[in-house]
Amino acid sequence: MNGRIHHFEAVAFVENFNLRELAQAIPGGRLRAHELRYPLEGGGEVFVYPFGAAVFHDAAAERRERFLERIRATLRAPARKVVAESFTVREEPGAKIGFAEGVLQIAELGPARAAAVAIVVAQSAAMEYYERLVDDLFGRTDALVDRLEKTGTVRARPARLHRFIGEAITSRNEVLSVLHLLDKPDEVWEDPELDRIYDDLRAEFDLTDRYQSLEIKLRGVQESLELVLDVARDRRMWLLEMSIAGLILVELVLSIWRR
């Protein structure tokens, strides 16, 4: 098969990155608003994003691991790698833009197009982490609702439910604000062909549908937890009322007995 093959390897972490601090700790990169780009010694390059993802372009495994160690050394807490994703681009002069068996075919890659590929692969890897997180929240919420359906009550304490709701809201806010899934890179607006490549890549990775699915699930988790919390509060109020009624009854019995 003719043409040059480009490999993009994304690594997503639980932790977010402060690009300005990272640029100071690891000099030699080109810092932009939502991207930090480094050439790698020995060949290849790496794109680092604030939502905790790094994408390596045509970098050998040892160079990737060496750079990731440099990133880990700058973090305040031990970095936890959670997701890895790869993507392939075939560059061949005269080729029409399109996908064949999951491989993007393109006439010329170039720096701007490489950046567009990298950010979409990074977003997909980060999205997978959030999908796992939200699926866990969804499963835990389902267990609470199922218990409510079977027993008609909730035994969880309101404080625990408050923490759970806070966790769901935090996750939702992070998904909405950190991934920048609806923001196109500046170069895309200036190049119609690059705009098409970017849109095709987003469609290939189903980013928009996956993003909307996360929003719907998080909204459902939040609404379900608020309902469960209301039931838990009603149960506590019922228990309080029963306790007060019991104390009144005891007081009456004692008053009659004293007579």
Index terms:
259 residues; alpha+beta; TATA-Binding Protein; Methane Monooxygenase Hydroxylase, Chain G, domain 1; eight-stranded mixed β-sheet
What does this structure look like?
The protein is of the alpha+beta class and 259 residues long. The chain folds into 2 domains: 4-109, 2-Layer Sandwich (TATA-Binding Protein), CATH 3.30.310; 124-232, Methane Monooxygenase Hydroxylase, Chain G, domain 1 (Up-down Bundle), CATH 1.20.58. 59% of the residues lie in helices and 18% in strands. It contains 7 helices and 8 strands, in the order βαββββαβββααααα. The chain has helices at residues 19-25, 61-74, 110-151, 158-178, 186-190, 192-204, 207-258; strands at 4-13, 30-32, 35-39, 45-49, 53-57, 81-91, 98-100, 103-106. It has an 8-stranded mixed beta sheet, sandwiched between helices. A hairpin with a 2-residue loop joins strand 2 and strand 3. Helix 3 (110-151) packs parallel to helix 6 (192-204), helix 3 runs parallel beside helix 7 and helix 4 (158-178) runs antiparallel to helix 7 (207-258). It is elongated and about 100 Å long. The N and C termini lie far apart (104 Å). Mean pLDDT is 79; it is low at 237-241.
